[in-house]
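Narrative of accomplishments. A recurring question from our advisory board has been how the design workflow behaves on a single, concrete structure rather than in aggregate. To address it, we present the structure tokens for one chain from the evaluation set, followed by the sequence designed for it. No filtering or post-editing was applied between the two.
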């Protein structure tokens, strides 16, 4: 049976106050309100910076047992070092994402917009091999990954 979930790319947006969230909501109450309507969310902020370990722990503890987080892969890995020596970034990124434990859904990798298809395919292969590597220790989990390749024919938003 297929598990279909509906969520959004993030949940902590000031411009949602008064539209989705009540006008008087406090920032720390946004996730609890979000949980009334959705059973999954994309952690989009992980693309821009690596949240503290405590943030992942708080997200895990603040959500129901069947909630899933899609975690956007770090742009440090895909855009800054362009998947050259991806273990350098994965060693910091994956252990934090794994703090979500059973609530860790797919890791969403967005590749740079100017990469041509062959480069993107080679990058996928390299990243998948790095994710599967037992370094630094044998990983307790298999990751589900999703890829976003932007091309001139595809919209960027």
């Amino acid at each position: 049976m297929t598990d279909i979930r509906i969520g959004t790319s993030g949940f902590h947006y000031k411009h949602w106050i008064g539209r989705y969230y009540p006008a008087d909501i406090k920032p720390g109450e946004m996730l609890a309100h979000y949980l009334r309507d959705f059973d999954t969310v994309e952690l989009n902020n992980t693309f821009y910076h690596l949240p503290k370990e405590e943030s992942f722990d708080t997200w895990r503890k603040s959500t129901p047992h069947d909630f899933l987080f899609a975690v956007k892969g770090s742009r440090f890995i895909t855009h800054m070092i362009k998947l050259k020596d991806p273990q350098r970034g994965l060693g910091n990124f994956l252990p934090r994402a794994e703090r979500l434990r059973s609530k860790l859904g797919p890791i969403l990798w967005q590749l740079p917009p100017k990469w041509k298809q062959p480069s993107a395919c080679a990058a996928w292969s390299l990243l998948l091999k790095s994710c599967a590597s037992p370094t630094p220790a044998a990983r307790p989990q298999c990751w589900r990954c999703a890829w976003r390749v932007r091309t001139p024919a595809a919209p960027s938003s």
